[in-house]
User: Fold this.
Amino acid sequence: MKQVVTLLIGLALAGTAFAQFTPENPECIAPANPGGGWDMTCRAMTRAMTESGALDTNVQVSNIPGAGGAIAFANVVTQRNDDDNLIVAASPGTTARLAQDQYPGFSEDDVRWIGALGADFGLIAVAADSPFETLDDLINTLAEDPSAINFGGGSGVGGQDHMKVLLLAQEAGIDPLAIRYTSFDGGGEAMTALLGGFIDVFPGDASESQGQLEAGDIRILATLTPERLPEPYADVPTARELGYDTEWVIFRGFWGPGNMSEEAYDFWVNVLNETADSSEWATIRDEVALGEYVLTGEEFEAFAKKQVQDLRALSRTLGLIE
Assistant:
């Protein structure tokens, strides 16, 4: 009888240890205002999670803008660092700011890097009535007077939208530090500024620009991609085609609280993997102009931390940090 009781207790404990984690009121934080890439990441990818059946509940999306994502990062690390129900949108905008110490007091080791489900692509956009018809028009003006053009993006100084411009200028033989750049809290605000004439050029992303391109409100001078994108960008040349060897490919994914449980971490990694394989995600991915790109779990963690190191070195080369 004693052996039976011991066996039952052991089975009960084993069942507890390996119990399936189930999130309660799961939440995705977009660290910017609505309309930009982080906002799209939360809304499109969590929609795919539920529609594919990888997750059996809806995910609340919360926008926490401020300081290029620093407000959200600090909030999670200091107040919600063991919240198993929380994921946060991530991109090279996150890793670039960490590389440049724009999240003061925090590092890439303070969070768990869960995975990426797609890739976005950088581009150079102007308003439909802009005097710049081609990328060469833009570069020629910059060569004459780098301060004559006001670029604006949904990231802070040194963030990914700014880096696109700096790399393009460097490739064109223009002093990157002479470039004028205005930062906004998210790509949505930057696009509004472009359409309102407050900035001249938006170094944005394909996903956040597609609606305005299809509406005829903007013109894309070039994509910062290895090869041309599909419609509606099929007629847009790459910067490389035009003689400027500049690329910017943006992973779209998530990080989570640094002290989330291993069960929760594994759960969210599995949700991303199941979503990635679904037809629902393939459809939604095309809707938001994302390319195929899947990297999850430990591999993604290693990738993200290496990208921080690489961007830190690049930022030093460009004179953005010491």
Observations:
- Confidence is low (pLDDT under 50) at residues 1-19.
